[in-house]
Amino acid sequence: MSTPLDRLRELQAADLPVHGGRTLAYVYDSGLADVDRVGREAVAAYAGSNGLDPTAFPSLLQMENDLVGFYAGLVDAPDTVVGSVTSGGTESCLLAVQGARDSRPDVERPRMVVPSTVHAAFLKAAHYFGVEAVVVPVGPDFRADPAAMLAAVDADPDRTVLVVVSAPSYAHGVVDPVAEIAPAAAARGIRCHVDACIGGWVLPYAARLGREVRPWTFAVDGVTSISADLHKYGYTPKGTSLLLHRTPEHRKPQYFAYADWPGYTMLNSTMQSTKSGGPLAGAWAVVQSIGDTGYELLSREVFEAVDAIVAGVTDIAGLSVLVPPDSTLVTLVTDASCDPFTVCDEMGARGWYVQPQMSYAGHPATIHLSVSAATLGGVADFLTALRASVAAAVAAGPVAVDPDVAAFIESLDPVALSDADFDGLLVAAGLIGGDDLALPDRMAEVNAMLDLASPRMREALLVAFLDRLQRPNR
Question: Chain centroid to CA 327: how far?
Answer without folding.
Answer: 14
